[in-house]
Every structure is written in C-alpha cells, then in structure tokens.
Design goal:
Helicase, Ruva Protein, domain 3, 7-stranded mixed sheet
Amino acid sequence: MLVGIVGKANVGKSTFFKALTMSDILIANYPFATIKPNHGVGYAKIDCVDTFFKTQCNPRFGACINHHRFVPVDVIDVAGLVPGASEGSGLGNQFLDDLNEANALINVIDAAGATNEKGEPSNPGTYNPADDIRFLERELDMWYYKIMMKGWEKFARTIKQEGKEAYKAIAKQLSGLRVTESMVKEAIKGLPEDVLLWDNEKLFGIASYLRRKSKPMVIAANKMDIPIARENIKKLQEEFPELVIIGCSADYELALREASKKGLIEYEPGSNKFEIKGQLTEQQKKALEFIQKNVLDTCGSTGVQQIINHAVFDLLKYIAIYPGGVNKLADKDGNVLPDCFLMPPDSTALDFAFKLHTDFGKNFIKAIDVKTKMPVGREHKLKHCDVVEIMANK
C-alpha cells in the first residue's frame, strides 16, 4: 500500500510528510521546495492486541505506546501542483507520474488561505482554500481523462469491430493507475452499449469516477492553529459534504515529535496531551504551552495521525493482522508479537500466508485463529486485529 501526499505548492505538504515519517527532508517557504518525490514510512495507529493476551508486545518496526500499535505505511510526498498541471505546467507531468502507484491520496491545503494560487505566501484570509480543492480534483480528473483519451476514436472502433467488452479494454488501458474491471463496470453502467456514442462529457465523467474510486482522497486542512483556518474548515465541510475534511497542524505535530525524539516530552501521536520529561528553556516551555492551549485543547489533537488513519482504515478499509503462534507469541529472540501487517479488505488466510512468505502460501495446510485457537481454511476471511498462525508443509 502506498499513500500519496498531494496539494498545491507551499501549503505544508513536506512538513506534513516529515511530521508523519520524521524523515530528513527540505522544508522551505517557497514554491517547489520539493522537486523529486520524498519516500518515507508513516504509521497507522491501532489498539494493540497485546491487551487481549495480557502482555506487552515488542514491535520490530514502528512502536507500541500505551498499548497503541503504530503499523508501518509507505508514504510518498510529490512535487507541488499548480493549475494546468495536467497540461504540463509547473512540475505537473512529474507530479502525476509519481502518483501512479498510490492507493489513496492526502490532499494538503492551506486552510488559512495564506498561500495564493501560485503557491506564494500571502496574508491569512486573502485566498479561498475551496479553490484548491476544486482545482486539484480537476487536474487529477484531467490526468485520467487524457490517458483514457489517447487514441480514443481508434480504440473505440476496435472495441466495436472486434466485439471486445468495453470495461475490460478501458481497465487494461488504465491499469497502471490501479483501475480495475469492476470499477469500470460501475463507471459505464447505464451508458449506450455502442462506445462510439459516448461524448466528451460522458467520457470525462467516466474518468472522474475512476479517479475517485482508484485514488480515494482525504483533505488535510492544514494550519488549523490559525483562527481563520478553523472558520474556513467549517465552511469547507459545508461546501463539500461529499468529502472528508480533517483539520490539522503539521508544524506543531512536527514540533511535538521532535521534542519527543529529544526526550524533552513524552508524546503519543494522535493524543491531546503530552508530559514534560526533560529540562526545558523558557522559550521551549512557552512554545509547548502554546501548542497545548491553541491546538491540543482547542482541536483535540494536531490531526496528522487522524488523517493517515482515515486514509488507511476508512478510505482503503485495510485491516491489521498479526502473525503468531497458539503456544508461543514470541519469536526466536523473545520478541512478543513482533510483526503486524496491513492487508486489503476481504483478505483470506491464504492471502496472509503468501504475505508472510511465498512458500507458506504454496504449501499451505491450514491457519489457526490464535485468539479462539480454532483452525480455519484457506478461504477464511480475516478480521481487523486477528492473530493468525500459518501451518504449511516444509
């Protein structure tokens, strides 16, 4: 799974990415600070199953804080988008190519309206952030439309003359964008069987539908620590009821994570509080007091953790599965429940066996639900936070 962080230039995308991944990247207050895509690992947060077994887990990757497990998620931060990106403006072509493999998108916007359409800094409230939502969706839709329309007339005639099923042909053409046949079937439902009768409006509608299905998106309304941003977020939620818009403050999430990394505070991402642990300067105390009062107390959290969680569990509906043994939860080094994997919805026990190792899948005998100690077959559908032991021939 890959989550793409997108948005207009200079709205805080890279800060959001760094806060999520703690990667060492360039952050600057000017357009196109990001040129090449940044790859990193963020973490989705779940209630850990170690409480079920009355133990404490020892993750090999991520962490477990207060019995909340942080499960790795691949994240990519791409170059900022500007109007006309689908025509090649700015770094548009590169931006779009970098997103091919993304399963879901986080669209970071400047909810304070302090960045103009070119990505240049301006005074808060001087720009309407709703325009950023509309233009980015339009650019993404145009991206899909242009790929679909490459040689469309010849393509459509071939479909008709050779009696090919349109949904299969379109899905194949857009497969690089993670478009599936079932998505296309839904997109063309109710349209004339003769593809030559589909006009540009209908074709653009197909492209838009397929973009929404293959690249579901959550809006990260950044800079919510600024009062006008909070007002704007309410307006945006009313104007775009079909979208999920979550307020966030990437700057302050990054500040909290860096302070935690240095041992100055104890902070669990997604929490509404922190605990001071180290010796702070007067300036550091004031900064942390400001974050607590103006972000955590006012908004409940910085929003960053909630956004990645929404992308993984609500948009993509992934589930977290632990490998384990009925008689032993620890690995050879004594680490309890060391691994946890994110799996697509409707994953089976056999899917999980292949996830662990190809040989486990090929030589699968059965799986055991470690919580219930009951055996399950290869077609058994897994549930979120299952712990599964795989039995296979050696």
